[in-house]
Automatic annotation (TrEMBL):
It comes from the Bacteria. SUPFAM superfamilies: TPR-like. This is Tetratricopeptide repeat protein. InterPro entries: TPR-like_helical_dom_sf, TPR_2, TPR_rpt.
């Protein structure tokens, strides 16, 4: 696409968010590829693309994107949690558990704690 402007990239990012909500991860990935190509430092776009890869069952690309996000933002609890889910889906439970525990330690949300297996056997909404 010739001469993409910064405004176009913002529109593409927002459209990709909507596509992801509408369960069209491949459409979101296509839009985000051009955004990330123009702005490789954009962590929000990388995180959104990682989520899209995950929803499209493209686990290796999802893992790589989540890792890039975590290199830049090692305290991003959601990225740790999502990487844990990706590794879990790839049948790598020990690696997944490490990221679940990091997510729970950084941000003790109930779903992070449950995944980290800190609160085994509790059904409390918290």
């Amino acid at each position: 696409m010739p001469d993409r402007s910064p405004e176009t990239h913002v529109i593409d990012f927002r459209t990709a968010e909507h596509l992801l909500e509408a369960r069209d991860p491949r459409g979101a990935i296509r839009l985000l590829d051009s955004v990330i190509s123009a702005h490789p430092e954009n962590t929000a776009a990388r995180l959104l693309r990682a989520r899209a890869f995950f929803l499209a069952a493209q686990l290796r690309p999802a893992e790589l994107e989540f890792q890039i996000v975590l290199e830049r933002e090692p305290d991003n609890a959601f990225a740790h949690f999502a990487l844990g889910r990706t590794l879990e889906r790839a049948n790598r439970p020990a690696e997944a558990l490490r990221h679940f525990r990091l997510a729970a330690a950084l941000e003790p949300r109930p779903q992070f704690i449950e995944a980290a297996r800190f609160a085994s056997g509790t059904d409390d909404d918290g």
